[in-house]
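Dear U.,

For the methods section draft, I wanted the exact inputs and outputs in one place so we can describe them consistently. I've listed the two proteins in the order they'll appear in the manuscript figures. Please don't edit the token lines directly; just add comments below if something needs changing.

First protein:
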Amino acid sequence: MDIDSTAVADGTEDSNAKSDSSSVVIETRSLSKVYRDFWGRKKVQALKPLDIEVKQGEIFGLLGPNGSGKSTTIKLILGLLFPTSGRVLVFDQDATETKKNERIGYLPEESYLYKFLNAEETLDFYGRLFDLSAAERAARVDELIKMVGLDKARHRQLREYSKGMTRRVGLAQALVNDPDLIMLDEPTTGLDPIGTREMKDLILRLRDEGKTVLLCSHQLADVQDVCDRVAILHQGELKELGRVDELLKVKDVTEIHARGLSDAAKKEIQEVIQRNGGTTDYIDNPTATMEELFLQIVRESDERPGMRRVSERELQEGDK
């Protein structure tokens, strides 16, 4: 009794509770969803009791194959579906409270936009829905169009846009209200490797600005590049939850990066490993990803138009 009264009196316990609560943007508590047929009989359990927290200022990945419950979870968070049991809290409010949506930006897997409008008109229309003034809309529209790389196509009708360009407009539309929480469903769909890299850089930029991002994607490389934590769903059930760097770490393997080693030095290192009871799986040069190679070639092509990139192997064959 003395401990409780002391904690309340000095405000320590109460302030900590408020601090912890305010740092959680999305919280699900034993959240589940069952779809039923016309007669009310259980048809499928799309989501089994789910407990996750998405914290302020992080990029949280929601992963899983088709039918794993990702879309159901997103719809429950947005308040588009009612849970069968459990609760969803967004900004400490029940997900069914529509007022919270003023602080949310949502990019669905398929963007439904008016094809007869251009980019400026589209963003101005959505700005009106959020009651932005004419001056605010003009400034915000110009900022977003430049942010997503559509400055040269701002006056073209959306019917003339490629799928990747339409995706960029969809992202700009999701950001028009300067949201605190941004929910992205397959954001890199239809984008080429350069557009994909730019989209990932933009997502990281949003996090650096203090935004919270919930990312749903089938592109596992994209998730690995940008997400801080992930939840993996399968058949409506949470199978794994944690930080990306910790989940991917192979704990019984030691990796050493070095430059300029001679063959003799490599052999000596291998002997040291063996003397200490370890085994050497391989000693070789590391490989880049296909994305890194592609972007490097494009950059070099921009710097030296008309010149073909020559590989190290071709240089060696030329010397012979």
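Second protein (the one for the lower panel):
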Amino acid sequence: MRTYDDTFSGQKIYPGKGKLFIRGDSKIFRFQRGKSESLFLQRKNPRRISWTVLFRRQHKKGISEEVAKKRTRRVVKHQRAVVGASLDVIKERRNMRPEARLAARQAAIKEGKDKKTDAERKKADKAKNAAAASRGQGSRIQSKQGAKGSAPKVAAKTR
């Protein structure tokens, strides 16, 4: 069964009851009783008339039994893992003593420096080997095609 709401009072209108009012701009208004229609045509504000649904909603009437108390949301803090470290590792590092943390940091710095010196040493060795190889070759520049073993380019005999 289709029911409509009264445009003015907000109460339900059951089939076969009420009046339909269509304004000049084709807007439809439905009224349950002549009382609400009359007040609408007098341009009364339904929020100021105590028996309308809008007034009751605005002044919080008749909703005390439905909603006992508004529940407040509490902020819950969560800890999440970061891309580089899991949650266990993060907790372990947080609970570490300052001396142990300092020692671990010093060890990490030393390890980083050792890696850097190793990389520089390798680079120097590579450069030395490349220089020795070029000396053995007679400092002759060779193209890629020549290195692959293709036939040497023939020099032009005419001008």
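Candidate sentences for the figure legend, describing the second protein: The beta strands are 4-5, 12-13, 19-22, 28-31. The first helix runs from residue 34 to 41.

Thanks,
Y.
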